[in-house]
Amino acid sequence: MLIDSHCHVDFPDLSEDITGVVMRARSAGVSHFLCVSVNLADFPRMVEITAPFEDISLSVGVHPNETLSHDEEPDANTLLNLATHERVVAIGETGLDYFRSEGALDWQRDRFAVHIAVGKALQKPVIVHCRHAAADTVELIKTEGAHECGGVMHCFAEDWATAREVIDQGFYISFSGILTFKNAGELREVAKKVPLDRILIETDSPYLAPHPFRGKTNEPALVRYTAECLAELKGITLEEVAQVTSDNFSTLFPLAKVSKGLHI
Ligand SMILES: [Zn+2]
Question: What is the pTM of this model?
């Protein structure tokens, strides 16, 4: 079985046909999905839309690119309350993005620190987004003690030095469809070096459809293409990639109710 460790099935592109999206994924051997929150305003809708599906776990958090007024900024108590929801297995997505946000970004670093504090308080891992901010992301993971709750650097597109630093902090590395892109040779070299017992796979759907679907709407069924690419890079079978990445997912997110029923 395959697990999509990071998707946004509550986004309109996918939620309009969420039953179809889930069915197609199950047919492709995907037996669990982590639907990742990007802001608190949409969280109740995400809970509602995904409620009929036992194989969808949730996270709660505010994405680093969400621009909010000061009084909307999530405080630790608000996040703590939402994160106690029984289907919430992780905190995020959080992290740093200096590509899409400009100016003084202390607020992003503060927000990231609040998410790590909540992860530590509840012993729920953090899902970390990082773009053009690798050094500060590693720094905050270290200074805020994120190893105490663990986490994953999702949609990984950084270099080996960064991967190694966060692995040393107990983190996992999640590869998305980017791994399959023709121009992602450097990332594939990084993937060869990341120990198998630290790898997760994801779609980040509806974004980042893998080759040969690049540019189209992505969905969890397509996580298989990333798994196949990884199998080739590691010189192992698709079944082995499925097994190890699913085991890793269950280790990192022990609260996720992953059923062992489906095989690919
Ligand atoms: Zn995402």
Answer: 0.96
